[in-house]
Amino acid sequence: MTRHGYTSAGRQRWRCRACNVSGLNGIDNSAKRLEEFLAWLLSGTRQVDMSGQGRSFRRRCKDLWSIWPLAPLVDEVHDVVFVDGIHLGRKAVVLIACTPDYVLGWYVARAENSRAW
């Protein structure tokens, strides 16, 4: 790839000498966004307290909000298992299975129905 001028926006354009295809090299900053998102998630700060009331942060991290966490695999046998669901808001519920002593596992689902259990 060799330099092949600039775009109207001022970005460097590159051209392949072998096949004559031109393109732009973008910077992949997804790791930086994931680090920023996890730092906020594990801290005690609120988005309202961020600069711009968190609007820029939400825009930068919008792709990370769609990642659903994986539930842990539980293969234990118990006499009694309690199951319940906690509704988090629109189209999100956490399904929890527990014994009288501790939590066995959880699952995030869109709705509390038999298919999700």
From TrEMBL:
It comes from the Bacteria. This is Transposase. It comes from Actinomyces urogenitalis DORA_12.
